[in-house]
């Protein structure tokens, strides 16, 4: 039985896990404003809820990862299952308490956002640990299916919400979380046995971890700058499009182009690894984040702005998979989950900073000032990734 599971291709089963995660991401993050505005929150309050949820998630990610890396802890699959069950309970509570108390609604939704962001590094680690155990799994293809599922869910929930209203959001979260539980249960996984010598070198203390992985600490700083730029461009797309002479239709088109253009990179990344190691791809993704920010700043009109979206292929599309492989390659087994948590934490911190700075920059100095800031941020991140990213062990890429 063990040999059968090891030799079978787990890409399809893992694709369902990625798919239901990103469908949940679409419902929770993509429709947060719709649900919370309907519940009586202001835009400022919504921003605060998302920022606080992000900060809590950033604090908890390395803590839970440190626990997951312990030899005595439950398997990664069980930890993810517990988090998803909490997500399901929160979805049901939101459904049952719909429009009853504004404080309780904010608390539940903020908790849902925190759990959603917590799940990401552990889902990535689930796939990478399976690969490290010798199981056949194409991580890039599975992550690509997650993006496809995100796009489909965004379209479907948009149409459903238009007819059924905001209550469709907690209903979708509940249904998707239940399906998520089923997909995880059907995924074969067992905890990797860590040797005694490896246990002794495990770094549960954050300070000890970063002393052990000094260059990785610098890489994380670069990622924060990269993600800050990315979040600014994506959270304020409507304002950017308006400054180029477009409206909501053009915003939707640009988002669709960006989402579709990243798929080839996701699906073909395993092939790309045969041409160059993951550290190479991780380094160059920073260049394309910077080029996209610069192109957005100088795009004179909507057609050129559409063209700029093609840079997404080797920007977000590339970092989404190369960063996961990079962490897996430079970390010892007993530190791998913590590494994934820290790299995910940089996106969370970038999101928090973007939420706090973006609107203020636009209100104070206009869209172009925000885009200049985003470009400078991406440039700093690009330089750090180019020089701090270390060569990877080819046997683990």
Q: Could you characterize the architecture of this molecule?
A:
This protein is mostly helical. Helices cover 80% and strands 0% of the residues. It contains 19 helices and no strands. The chain has helices at residues 2-7, 11-30, 32-38, 43-68, 76-96, 102-132, 139-164, 168-185, 196-200, 206-212, 214-235, 237-243, 248-261, 263-275, 278-298, 302-308, 316-330, 336-365, 367-388. Helix 4 packs parallel to helix 6 and helix 18 packs antiparallel against helix 19 (367-388). The radius of gyration is 20 Å and the shape is globular. Residues 1-6 have low confidence and may be disordered.
Strand-helix topology:
Blueprint: H1 2-7, H2 11-30, H3 32-38, H4 43-68, H5 76-96, H6 102-132, H7 139-164, H8 168-185, H9 196-200, H10 206-212, H11 214-235, H12 237-243, H13 248-261, H14 263-275, H15 278-298, H16 302-308, H17 316-330, H18 336-365, H19 367-388
Helix pairs in contact: 2-6, 2-7, 2-8, 4-6, 4-18, 5-6, 5-8, 6-18, 7-14, 10-11, 11-15, 11-18, 11-19, 12-13, 14-17, 15-17, 15-19, 17-18, 18-19
């Amino acid at each position: 039985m063990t040999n059968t599971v090891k030799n079978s291709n787990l890409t399809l089963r893992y694709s369902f896990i990625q798919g239901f995660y990103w469908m949940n991401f679409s419902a929770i993050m993509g429709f947060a404003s719709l649900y919370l505005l309907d519940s009586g929150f202001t835009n400022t309050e919504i921003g605060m809820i998302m920022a606080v949820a992000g900060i809590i998630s950033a604090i908890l990610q390395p803590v839970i990862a440190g626990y997951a890396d312990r030899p005595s802890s439950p398997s990664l699959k069980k930890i993810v299952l517990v988090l998803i069950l909490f997500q399901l309970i929160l979805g049901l509570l939101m459904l049952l308490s719909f429009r009853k108390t504004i404080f309780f609604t904010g608390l539940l939704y903020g908790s849902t956002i925190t759990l959603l962001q917590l799940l990401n590094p552990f889902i990535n680690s689930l796939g990478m640990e399976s690969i490290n155990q010798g199981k056949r799994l194409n991580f890039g293809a599975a992550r690509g299916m997650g993006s496809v599922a995100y796009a489909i869910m965004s379209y479907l929930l948009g149409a459903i919400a238009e007819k059924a209203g905001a209550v469709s959001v907690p209903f979708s979260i509940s249904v998707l979380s239940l399906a998520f539980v089923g997909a995880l249960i059907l995924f074969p996984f067992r905890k990797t046995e860590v040797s005694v010598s490896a246990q002794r070198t495990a770094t549960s203390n954050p300070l000890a971890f970063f002393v052990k992985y000094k260059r990785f600490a610098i890489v994380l700083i670069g990622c924060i700058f990269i993600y800050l730029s990315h979040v600014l461009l994506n959270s304020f797309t409507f304002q950017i499009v308006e400054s180029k002479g477009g409206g909501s239709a053009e915003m939707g088109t640009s988002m669709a182009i960006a989402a579709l253009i990243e798929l080839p990179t996701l699906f073909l990344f395993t092939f790309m690894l045969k041409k160059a190691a993951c550290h190479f791809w991780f380094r160059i993704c920073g260049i394309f984040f910077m080029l996209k920010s610069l192109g957005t700043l100088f795009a004179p009109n909507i057609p050129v702005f559409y063209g700029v979206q093609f840079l997404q292929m080797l920007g977000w599309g590339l970092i989404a998979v190369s960063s996961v492989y990079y962490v897996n390659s430079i970390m010892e087994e007993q530190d791998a989950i913590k590494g994934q948590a820290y790299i995910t934490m940089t996106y969370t911190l970038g999101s928090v900073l973007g939420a706090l700075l973006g609107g203020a920059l636009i209100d104070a100095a206009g869209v172009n000032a925000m885009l200049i800031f985003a470009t400078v941020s991406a440039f700093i991140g690009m330089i750090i990734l180019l020089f701090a990213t270390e060569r990877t062990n080819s046997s683990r890429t």
